[in-house]
Amino acid sequence: MSSIVLFGPPGAGKGTQAERITQQTGLPQISTGDMLRAAVKAGTETGILAKTYMDAGQLVPDEVIIDLIKERITHPDAKNGVMFDGFPRTIPQAEALADITAVTHVIAIEVPDERIVERICGRYSCAGCGNVFHDIFNPLGPDGCGCDRFVEKRRADDNEDTVLSRLGAYHDQTSPLADWYESAGIFHRINGDRAIDDITADILSALQ
Ligand code: AP5
């Protein structure tokens, strides 16, 4: 099993691109953020613990994340490789991942900090199909959302204060991973401050 990692700050477009890359490659998306939100919604022990960190814009402890990933990659759809979205975010998570699977590509979607708040504060999704939109940059079009029951949903942590904490956590704890992966020769920098289609094209070309 070999895998790819989508890497970048909050609001860089990891989830938006993951959906498109999944369609093109067939690799399942494993988003630790989505898994944690599902656990919060289900009221599990993990969810109750994670919520305090997520609401504060801080990273959830490594051991919680690593246990979630170890369980998720045992699912049958992961046997031919996966696409991680938002994992790993710390050196201990990257070390744990190296013991689980060979990472072949790390796709770093780069967006300047000053763009992040407007991206995140304008984000909404469909509660039915999960597709993600933006008030200005990527609004729901006349063709709808991908299911026939659009219900608008906004994330509890998509507010300006929490976004600034999430950006801080990214710079302090996650961005050091760039050097780690760059020295392994598998790190691909993609300019994420462009049209969504152009970014997808560059990611697909980096994956070839
Ligand atoms: P998570 O859910 O992973 O959030 P995140 O990393 O902060 O990333 P986002 O989902 O906010 O952004 P994205 O890059 O997917 O952008 P999107 O495509 O939606 O994590 C949430 C929390 O869970 C963390 O804060 C932490 O507490 C915890 N957590 C998760 N994983 C963890 C881990 N491994 N370790 C520890 N804790 C963990 O795009 C954003 C918006 O911009 C959308 O509205 C979209 O339509 C729009 N957009 C996308 N692309 C473009 C473009 N090119 N131009 C204009 N607009 C665009």
Which ligands does the model contain, each kind named once?
A: BIS(adenosine)-5'-pentaphosphate
What is the distance, rounded to the nearest whole angstrom, between the alpha carbons of the first and last residues? 17 Å
Question: What is the CATH C-level name?
Answer: Alpha Beta
CA gyration radius, whole angstroms: 16 Å
Find the CATH topology: Rossmann fold
Domain count, please report it: 1
Sheet with the most strands, sense and barrel status: 5 strands, parallel
The CATH superfamily label reads P-loop containing nucleotide triphosphate hydrolases
- Helical proportion? 40-55%
The gross shape turns out to be globular
Strand order of the largest sheet: 2-3-1-4-8
What is the CATH architecture assignment? 3-Layer(aba) Sandwich
Return the string of H and E elements: EHEHHHEHEHEEEHHEH
What does this structure look like?
With 208 residues, this protein is an alpha/beta fold. It is 47% helix and 17% strand. It has nine helices and eight strands. A hairpin with a 5-residue loop joins strand 5 and strand 6. The longest helix has 15 residues. The two termini are 17 Å apart. Bound molecules: BIS(adenosine)-5'-pentaphosphate (AP5). The site of BIS(adenosine)-5'-pentaphosphate (AP5) has 35 residues, from helix 1, helix 2, helix 3, helix 6 and strand 6. BIS(adenosine)-5'-pentaphosphate (AP5) binds next to helix 1, helix 2, helix 3, helix 6 and strand 6.
